[in-house]
Amino acid sequence: MDEIRSDSYPLHPTFDPNLAAWLTSLEELTSSEFTIRQATADSGDARWMRYMQVACEPLTVQSAASNDKTIAEQRVLFAMIGETPVGFCVSMSGTTELDPVFIQLVGVVGPVRGRGIGTALMHAVAEQTRRRTIAFATLDDNPAARA
């Protein structure tokens, strides 16, 4: 078997103790109740978003710097069970009130899928943008998103 090297897998639990702790916390979640909050730039939320991207294959994992920029420039909501982030939604509004809100990405980590978290994230975007049309698209081979 080939050796796992940290430069090849920087987001591997073996090399990132924070990722390992977060993955363990997902396995230990006992509550089904969740809250939704606005992500904050420069707060560590970019790292949480990166971890969720890792756990939500086949999402493209972005750097913390890229995620921080996304959080600063777009609407990013997190779903939380207690203090543990379990899902996120990225949306972007047009420049005028007549432009739609485009939901670009919704990700929910595997251990908590099927609890309505993705739907709740999209509803939260709708609540924040009541007077706008909401648009989103998905691939034909994504049955969870199409549902």
Molecular structure report:
By secondary structure, this protein is an alpha+beta fold. The chain has a single domain, classed as Aminopeptidase (3-Layer(aba) Sandwich), CATH 3.40.630. It is built from 5 helices and 5 strands. A 5-stranded mixed β-sheet has the order 1-2-3-4-5, with helices on both faces. A hairpin with a 7-residue loop joins strand 3 and strand 4. Helix 2 crosses helix 3. The longest helix has 12 residues. The protein is globular and about 45 Å long. The N terminus is likely disordered.
State the CATH class: Alpha Beta
Report the radius of gyration as a whole number of Å.
16 Å
Mean pLDDT: 85
Q: How many separate domains?
A: 1
Helix-strand topology string? HEHHEEEHEH
Count the DSSP helices.
Answer: 5
CATH architecture, please? 3-Layer(aba) Sandwich
What sort of overall outline do the alpha carbons produce when their principal axes are compared? globular
Unreliable parts: 3-9
Major β-sheet strand ordering: 1-2-3-4-5
Helix-strand layout with pairing:
Blueprint: H1 17-27, E1 35-38, H2 45-55, H3 64-73, E2 75-81, E3 84-93, E4 101-108, H4 117-128, E5 134-135, H5 143-146
Parallel strand pairs: 4-5
Antiparallel strand pairs: 1-2, 2-3, 3-4
Short description:
With 147 residues, the protein is α+β, with helices and mostly antiparallel strands.
Question: Features of this protein?
Answer:
single chain, about 150 residues, alpha+beta, Aminopeptidase, 5 helices, 5 strands, about 35% helix
